[in-house]
Amino acid sequence: MQSTPTIDSAEKASQKAVESTMLSPRFYTTDFAAMDRLDISGVRAEWDTMMAEYEGDNNHDHFQRTPEFAVEVAERFSQVSPEMRQEFLDFLISSLTSEFSGCILYNEIFRNIENPDIKQLMRFMARDESRHASFINQSLKDFGLGIDLGDLKRTKAYTYFKPKYIFYATYLSEKIGYARYITIYRQLERHPDKRFHPIFRWFERWCNDEFRHGESFALIMRANPHLLRGGNVYWIRFFLLAVYATMYVRDHARPMLHQEMGLESSSYDYEVFRITNEITRQVFPVSLDIDNPAFRSGLAHLFHVQTQMDKAKARGGVIGGLQRARWAVSGLATFVRLYFLPVKHHSLPTQIRMAPAW
Ligand SMILES: [Fe+2]
Ligand SMILES: [Fe+2]
After folding, report:
1. DSSP string for residues in 110-179
2. CB 27, CB 158: distance < 8 Å
């Protein structure tokens, strides 16, 4: 299913990156004064170890293309179908937008605060995300579809999030980003014939950066435990569901991409959720019960709603508008039902940090 126009020019690639829909990655801004007041002294030892890792920068030479890169694109990627090519471009653009979203947010926090711990962290994370975004952009440039990142920064809409929402959402997107990249990497390691583009070779060391970014937010939240208790648990449940549901619907809109790798969108997504659930125990006192049949059918229904919304949008006019409204209500009702499904509760481990062992 392709709900967007064909991406065949740099202009259309940029439009795709700029658009703000329910499912597209967003840009964020936050309350810098509140960020400045953060105290991480409760996790000082683990924090300092992590900072030393950032300082050591073991991926400083990783995001360089080798001469074989272009050869592989020419020989292997040229064999994929035009529809598959579109799904891959959509994947590259949404990945680039979310990498760059992190880069902008971390850089803006860095520029607007004085708190030495948080400032140093933001500088390191912005460094990493900038490398990730540029590396993806090089692959778009191979097809003449490079995105002007300065322009994107100026023209895309920004969403304001309180710091605690930034922590929940960004922690999750870093960890789920790790789980997504490592699941693809492991699959293609087992089936190298299915590696249809060389960029996937970079995913293993790349996702270790994302893992560490997630660790940073885990430490910030564990150092401020009120963020993980009481009414905030309801926010954690909301963000878990919102992030999982968005990923599920977005991934199911590009089934060929997963097929080409020998994966299937649903099993891939549930593997990613399983890994993410294991990781988030380091910080969240609850996790979603991803094996509950009502959870699975709810997510499947959300994807159905999305396809119906796309059809109604394409139809247009009064009827199309009414149909869209009807499906929006259905989607919202399903989301609410999913939200109130029982969750799993667990106590938080004494040792916060984890190793990327998947
Ligand atoms: Fe990244
Ligand atoms: Fe990241």
Report:
1. HHH---HHHHHHHHHHHHHHHHHHHHHHHHHHTTT----HHHHHHHS-EEE--HHHHHHHHHHHHHHHHH
2. yes
Give the pLDDT confidence score for residue 1 in this predicted structure.
Answer: 44
**What is the model's pLDDT at position 4?**
55
> If you measure from the C-alpha of residue 260 to the centroid of ligand 1, how many angstroms do you get, rounded to a whole number?
23
CA of 175, nearest ligand number:
2
For residue 3, the model assigns a pLDDT of 47
Distance 307 CA to ligand 2 centre (A): 30
Determine the distance separating the centroid of ligand 1 and the alpha carbon of 210, expressed in angstroms: 6
Expressed in angstroms and rounded, the spacing between residue 133 Cα and the centre of ligand 1 is 7
In degrees and rounded to multiples of 5, residue 354 shows phi and psi of -125, 165
pLDDT lower than 70: segments of the chain: 1-4
Identify the pLDDT of residue 157.
Answer: 87
- Nearest ligand to residue 131 Cα: 1
* Rounded distance between C-alpha atoms, residue 318 and residue 316, angstroms: 7
pLDDT for the residue 325: 95
pTM of the model: 0.93
Q: How many angstroms separate the alpha carbon of residue 54 from the centre of ligand 2?
A: 12
